[in-house]
Design a protein that fits this description.
There is one protein chain. The protein is 48% helix and 14% strand. It is an alpha/beta fold. The chain folds into three domains: 15-36 and 161-258, Phosphohistidine domain (Glucose Oxidase, domain 1), CATH 3.50.30; 48-157, PtsI, HPr-binding domain (Enzyme I, Chain A, domain 2), CATH 1.10.274; 270-593, TIM Barrel (Alpha-Beta Barrel). Strands 1-8-7-3-4-5-6-2 form an eight-stranded mixed β-sheet, covered by helices on one side. It has an eight-stranded parallel barrel with strand order 10-11-12-13-14-15-16-17, surrounded by seven helices. A hairpin with a 4-residue loop joins strand 7 and strand 8 (241-244). It is globular. The two termini are 41 Å apart. The structure holds phosphoenolpyruvate and magnesium ion (MG). The site of phosphoenolpyruvate (PEP) has 11 residues, from strand 11 and helix 18.
Length: 594
């Protein structure tokens, strides 16, 4: 197992960090610290009386690093061969280099720098000097020095570089950053919770964690450099707090809160399979958001009436490549069969933005969220699009399968996608393969231009689905993964609500169903507002279904309509609207806000 012994000064007992509540739930357990980036080097000034101890800490890190390299040499010699193991000779030379060590000691002693800063500066400096040398052999040593510098730093900080594929006991992962692909690959049984320096509640990392039912707090900025592997951690994904090395009182209070919540939720967990119908008889269809990692058996019993959003890109992210047509047929077919005739809305590939994977060889873009992502990428690489559409069509006759195009900007994109769909149908007809000729095709409304032209799109699409996660991002110009602007990310902003209203109106006018599959639908107070605005289908992460159904079952439809009208007339800020939503829920289902 890849565990680095922590050589850090211990964090304060009971240190509490506040971040963004990303995935509801609570967890307690030992930390496993992973640093994807090592650009957050802790910077402390060492008081004179601690200088010797700091230098001793540095030497201990050197000794650990040396042993790790020797272990690597043994492993590579046995598994590959002694000559391949020879590449680590240069690494040993770097850790044993007396001049390098004396430069680090000097920075600690004379500049009162902490060991991390000293190692970072010295190895960067050495590496830059080697990179500028004429001799090719010496130039190549530049990267060895950087590599060793990072290894020493990781040992000083007590952080691991990778997440193991299995743990001997479950841990809370603490990381500076975690990509959606890393999150998809997390060992299911080994992860109790996620604590991440970066991100927001609607980043795809958070969305995947939610789908996996892993409580998470994100946007904590520096927590990963304050915690060390093995520290006891209490994570509260409702409040967005993380307590490191809790005191006995904190631990006791945490246990009490968990027990009280478990007791209160028994009520809505028990009625999760009942229909979401208001006390005055208005029904709302509740669907689940799913992906390739979803537990099919769980999906079937979580109280959903089908799949309102199947994020197919998760299959690409898990494989790290494009699945071939048959692999896609197998994955989509399994989902459709598990849903036994209930609708399954399969969204075509939505890679790009923060969902990157090796399968999509695009150039690095300055603004990936505004770049070649999603349907734009598919229309540029029609062979990829064709393989996916053929696979969806091939499973279409096994159930109620629907196709959804993400990131539609205007009707031209919708038409262009449909041209390719028709070509795929033609091919399958010629091959004698059965499929549903009239398969419904919907457009996601997640770009303001699509919402503003919803009346045009509605004439060409069988249904519209509001992707509020992106709609909020693009309407308010707030990056959905950037923790620095997370407070500006407001689903109840009047502009966003106006776009939703416009889309619903277009759906009513052209008799097209309008659903919401963004995270807004998973918030009970906002789900009630959406119902009042005329949205009759909500799709959400399966774990949110019981609470949302409970909110709907307790709130009269007439009150929800009054709320929506009141907000349209009087709420001039996002906060006004949110307060009004919470006030209604406080009246109808206060237990959900407790
Ligand atoms: C959305 O944007 O609201 C949505 C559901 O899609 P994703 O979160 O996958 O971008
Ligand atoms: Mg989206």
């Amino acid at each position: 197992m890849n565990s680095n012994p922590p050589i850090q000064p211990p964090p304060r007992d009971g240190a509490c960090f506040e971040g963004i509540p990303a995935v509801a739930g609570r967890a307690s357990g030992p930390a496993w610290v992973v640093h994807a980036r090592l650009d957050e080097i802790p910077d402390r000034t060492i008081p004179p009386e601690e200088i010797d101890a700091e230098i001793a800490r540095f030497h201990l890190a050197i000794a650990v690093t040396r042993q790790q390299i020797l272990d690597l040499v043994t492993e590579v010699s046995q598994r590959i061969g002694p000559s391949e193991a020879g590449v680590f000779d240069a690494h040993l030379m770097v850790v044993d280099d007396g001049f390098l060590k004396s430069c680090v000691e000097k920075l600690i002693r004379e500049r009162t720098a902490c060991a991390e800063v000293a190692v970072h500066r010295v190895t960067e400096d050495f590496s830059a000097k080697f990179a500028a040398m004429h001799d090719a052999y010496l130039r190549e040593r530049s990267s060895d020095i950087l590599d060793i510098g990072r290894r020493i730093l990781r040992n000083l900080m007590g952080v691991s570089e990778t997440i193991p594929s299995a743990f001997d006991q479950p841990h809370i992962i603490i990381s500076d950053d975690l990509t959606p692909s890393q999150t998809v690959g997390l060992p299911r049984d080994g992860v109790l919770g996620l604590v991440i320096d970066r991100g927001s509640a609607t980043s795809h990392t958070a969305i995947i964690a939610r789908a996996l039912g892993i409580p998470a707090v994100v946007g904590l900025k520096h927590v990963s450099s304050e915690v060390r592997t093995g520290d006891e951690v209490l994570l509260d994904g409702y409040k967005g707090t993380v307590i490191v090395r809790p005191t006995p009182d904190e631990l006791a209070e945490f246990k009490q809160v968990c027990a009280a919540h478990r007791k209160a939720s028994v009520d809505w967990q028990r009625s999760r399979n009942m229909r979401a119908e208001t006390p005055d008889g208005h029904g709302v269809t509740i669907l689940a958001n799913a992906d390739h990692t979803s537990d099919l058996a769980q999906l079937a019993i979580r109280g959903s009436e089908g799949i309102g959003l199947y994020r197919t890109e998760s299959l690409w992210m898990q494989l790290g490549r494009e699945p071939d047509e048959d692999e896609q047929v197998e994955a989509y077919g399994a989902m459709v069969c598990a849903m036994t005739g209930r609708p399954v809305v399969i969204r075509v590939l939505d890679l790009g933005g923060d969902k990157v994977c090796g399968a999509m060889p695009v150039q690095t873009e300055a603004n990936p969220f505004l770049g070649l992502r999603s349907i734009r990428y598919l229309l540029k690489t029609p062979e990829v699009f064709r393989r996916q559409l053929r696979a969806i069509l091939r499973v279409s006759s096994c159930g109620d399968v629907q196709i959804m195009y993400p990131m539609i900007c205007d009707v031209e994109e919708l038409r262009a996608a449909n041209v390719i769909l028709e070509q795929c149908k033609e091919e399958l007809r010629a091959e004698g393969v059965a499929f549903t000729e009239s398969i419904p095709v919907g457009a996601m409304i997640e770009i303001p231009s699509a919402a503003l032209t919803a009346h045009i799109l509605a004439r060409q699409a069988d249904f519209l689905c509001l992707g509020t996660n992106d709609l909020v991002q693009y309407t308010l110009a707030v990056d959905r993964v950037n923790e620095n602007v997370a407070s500006l990310y407001q689903p109840t902003h009047p502009s966003v609500l106006t776009l939703i209203r416009h889309t619903v109106k277009a759906g009513v006018r052209y008799k097209r169903p309008v659903s919401v599959c963004g995270e807004m639908a998973a918030d009970p107070a906002l789900a009630v507002l959406l119902m009042g605005m005329g949205v009759n289908t909500l799709s959400m992460t399966p774990t949110a279904i019981p609470e949302v159904k409970h909110a709907i079952r307790k709130t009269p439809y007439a009150d929800a309509i009054k709320l929506a009208r009141g907000i349209a007339a009087h709420a001039s800020t996002a906060e006004d609207a949110r307060r009004m939503c919470r006030a209604l829920l406080q009246r109808t289902a206060p237990e959900l806000l407790a």
